UniProtKB/TrEMBL annotation:
Catalytic activity: tRNA(His) + L-histidine + ATP = L-histidyl-tRNA(His) + AMP + diphosphate + H(+)
Signal peptide positions on this chain: none
The protein, known as: Histidine--tRNA ligase
Gene name per UniProt: hisS
UniProt organism field: Psychroflexus lacisalsi
Chief place of localization: cytoplasm
Keyword entries, A-Z: Aminoacyl-tRNA synthetase, ATP-binding, Cytoplasm, Ligase, Nucleotide-binding, Protein biosynthesis
The protein's enzyme class: ligase
Assembly information from the UniProt record: Homodimer.
Family statement drawn from the similarity comment of this UniProt entry: Belongs to the class-II aminoacyl-tRNA synthetase family.
EC number of this enzyme: 6.1.1.21
Length: 457
């Protein structure tokens, strides 16, 4: 009995049109990565488990796909862990590799391994698939494509300014107006934890705070209490649950709230530097917003934090994000190597462009002109024209079979091919090609030279 055709939850097949739309987004992002001076690299689909584990926080570690060792993997399994059903200890003895969770940690590993070949500061971009054992839902997949850009080897805040400009440039090029670039600084979060006397619970504090837009104020308070953060401490940070106003107003509120925190004041200074620079270079279509609850829940961010929200009329999670990581390469032995990077969420950007009908119409055209097949001699005659058109980068194809005219025309219509060429015996005698516009029905005869010129203009 044949097995049922299916794919794993959280993964997708892509049709020709979907691939064309994805490539449109990727090529737009890639073009601007290049104009901003980034160089491409690639890293393996899977990494050694110890490269990834412990880099994303407790929640992130649970979402890493582990790969079973080859062969009889249970032979070398930790017997004690197996008997006690300790999955954490057991997995380390039966799985030495894992699918990459993101592109940033593998990039840090790459930098350390290739440090003698790299010119610093190193600006790289990377467009590859990543994998997360997440619960599939709208806009959330287990296999998805990230488009990352990072600069490592510089602690200059001008890099943060450029990344905000890069986000704005890409989304403006995609005609996706009204995007919000949310920004925070990890030093602000450290300062908030410090002033309420909970510095030792910084990670628990920030992970809970980052969920404010998902579970609300009461949900965040409940999670903080469960993590051992006192009620009085939570009461002291109550103002941040309702921060309103523009960027400058929020900065002033933070100055008051963090007046007794040196690290918090440092975070405010960094935010002000970026704000003043962008005041001199206004964004095209995006909006910059200070979101003091933004934490992203990742252990390696140490400075600026970014998260990108789609226009308000679209109900979608973040479509991009990133931040500053001052000591990421230190976990692989390379100290004092500051970096900052951002990521574009291709799959979610796709869904947003689809919902707002922002894909260009020409993306749907996979082939420009289809040649009708009337028989062997006619096919040979049309192939001469097809070769010329292809040499001029005009996508052309011959219907492979001598099927009925209606079937071939229907094929062109369903493929959204805008033109067909009819070349039978009479056209061959005249040495012309009869070109039909599928939308208007208009037909014109062209010589081979004229046909190529018609599509080249």
């Amino acid at each position: 009995m044949a097995s049922k055709a299916s794919i794993p939850k959280g993964t997708r097949d892509f049709s020709p049109l979907e691939v064309s739309k994805r490539q449109y987004i990727i090529s737009t992002i890639q073009k601007h990565f290049k104009t901003f001076g980034f160089q491409p690299i690639e890293t393996p689909t899977f990494e050694n488990s110890d490269t990834l584990m412990g880099k994303y926080g407790e929640e992130g570690d649970r979402l890493i796909f582990k790969i079973l060792n080859s062969g009889d993997y249970l032979k070398k399994a930790n017997a004690e862990a197996y008997e006690s059903k300790d999955s954490v200890k057991l997995s380390s003895s039966i799985s030495e590799k894992a699918l990459k969770y993101d592109l940033t940690v593998p990039f840090a590993r790459y930098v350390v391994q290739h440090q003698n070949e790299i010119d610093f500061p190193f600006k790289r971009y990377q467009i590859q698939n990543v994998y997360r054992a997440d619960r599939p839902q709208k806009g959330r997949f287990r296999e998805f494509t990230q488009c990352d850009a990072d600069v490592i080897g510089s602690d200059s805040l001008w890099q943060e300014v450029e990344f905000i400009q890069l986000y704005d440039t890409v989304f403006s090029s995609l005609k996706l107006e009204g995007v919000t670039i949310k920004m925070n600084n990890r030093k602000i979060l450290s300062g908030l934890a410090e002033v309420i006397g909970e510095s030792d619970k910084l990670i628990d504090f920030t992970v809970a705070l980052d969920k404010l837009d998902k579970i609300g104020e009461e949900g965040v308070k409940k999670e903080m209490l469960e993590k051992g953060i006192s009620e009085s401490a939570i009461e002291n940070i109550k103002p941040i649950f309702n921060f309103t106003g523009d960027f400058s107003k929020k900065i002033n509120l933070l100055k008051s709230l963090l007046s007794n925190s040196e690290i918090g004041q440092k975070g405010i200074e960094e935010l002000e530097f970026i704000q003043k620079a962008l005041d001199q270079m206004p964004l095209q279509t995006a909006r910059l917003d200070l979101d003091v609850t933004l934490a992203r829940g990742l252990n390696y961010y140490t400075g600026a934090i970014f998260e990108i929200s789609a226009p308000e009329e679209v109900k979608m999670g973040s479509i991009g994000g990133g931040g500053r990581y001052d000591d990421l390469t230190g976990i692989f032995g390379l100290k004092n190597m500051s970096g900052v990077g951002i990521s574009f969420g291709l799959d979610r950007i796709y869904l947003v462009l689809e919902e707002l009908n922002l894909f260009p119409q020409e993306i749907e055209e996979t082939t420009k002109v289809l040649f009708i097949n009337f028989g062997e001699e006619e096919a040979l005659y049309t192939l001469k024209a097809i070769s010329k058109l292809r040499t001029s980068s005009i996508s052309s194809e011959l219907y492979p079979d001598t099927a009925k005219m209606k079937k071939q025309m229907t094929y062109a219509d369903r493929r959204n091919i805008p033109y067909v060429v009819l070349a039978g015996g009479s056209e061959m005698k005249e040495e012309v090609y009869n070109l039909k516009n599928m939308k208007t029905g208009e037909q014109n005869k062209f010589s081979l030279k004229e046909l190529v010129a018609h599509f080249s203009n």
